[in-house]
Amino acid sequence: MLTIAMPKGRIFSEAVELLRKSGYKLPDEFDESRKLILTVPEENIRFILAKPMDVGTYVEHGVADVGIAGKDVMMEEERDVFEVLDLKISKCHLAVAGLPDTKMNDIAPKVATKYPNVASKYFREQGEQVEIIHLNGSIELAPLIGLADRIVDIVSTGRTLKENGLVEFEHIADITSRLIVNPVSYRMKDKPIDMLVERLAKTVEEGKEDSD
Ligand SMILES: Nc1ncnc2c1ncn2[C@@H]1O[C@H](COP(=O)(O)OP(=O)(O)OP(=O)(O)O)[C@@H](O)[C@H]1O
Ligand SMILES: O=P(O)(O)OC[C@H]1O[C@H](OP(=O)(O)OP(=O)(O)O)[C@H](O)[C@@H]1O
Fold first, then answer.
1. Atom of ligand 1 at shortest distance to CA of 10?
2. Which one of 13, 107, 140, 212 has the largest count of C-beta atoms within 10 Å of its C-beta?
3. Closest protein CA for atom 15 of ligand 1
C-alpha cells in the first residue's frame, strides 16, 4: 500500500480534484470528514492529512512514501526527498512587501516572515543585512504596527496586500505545489509510484493544454 501525505488547508481540495481527474476514485469522505487517515482500499492507497509545513517531515522519515507540498515549504526546509513533479496547483509567489514610499531602516532593518530561511538567504544574496522576525501568520500586520520594515510572504491575488495598504517591492520566486517522494520508497515501491507520477503528469499536461 502507498501512503500519501496530503496538506490540509487550501492545497487539499485542489489536490483531491487533481487526483480525481487522474482517475483515482476518492470517496465523498474526502470532502467532509475530519479523519486524519483516509484509506482507499480499491486504489491501495492510504492518505494522511498533515499541516502543510509538516508534509516534508512525514515523507523524509518514510512514514509517507509520497507527499504534496508547496515549493515555498520545500525552499524553507531542505529535505532529503525527491521532488518529482510540478503539480501546477496553488499558484502564488513569494515577495518582499511593505508600506509604500518607505525605505528599509539603515541601521537595523527588520523583516517579518513565516519563511526565515528563505528570507535570510534572499537578503544575504542581495548583500543586505537584516534582522529576521519569525511570525506564524497574519504577516501583513507587522509593517502596519511597526514590528518590521518589510515582510516576506506569499502573494496570490494581491488582495491581502491591497486591503492593508501594502505594496510589493520584490518578487522572490514563483510557487506551485510539488509531488515529493521518499528516496527509499522510490526504490522499494517504484511501480506504484511511477504509475502515480505518470497519471498525475498526464492530467497536469492536459490542464496546461486547456489553459494555452
Ligand atoms: N493565498 C494563497 N493562494 C494560493 N496558494 C497559497 C496561498 N497561500 C499559501 N499558498 C500555498 O498553499 C500552501 C498551504 O497554505 P495554507 O494557507 O493552507 O497553509 P499554512 O498557512 O501553511 O498553514 P496554516 O494556515 O494551517 O497554519 C502554502 O505552502 C503555499 O504553497
Ligand atoms: O494575495 P492574496 O490572494 O490575498 O493571498 C495572500 C495571503 O494568503 C496567505 O495567507 P493565509 O490566508 O494562509 O493566512 P495566514 O496569514 O494565516 O498565513 C498569505 O500569507 C497572504 O497573507
1. 18
2. 140
3. 10
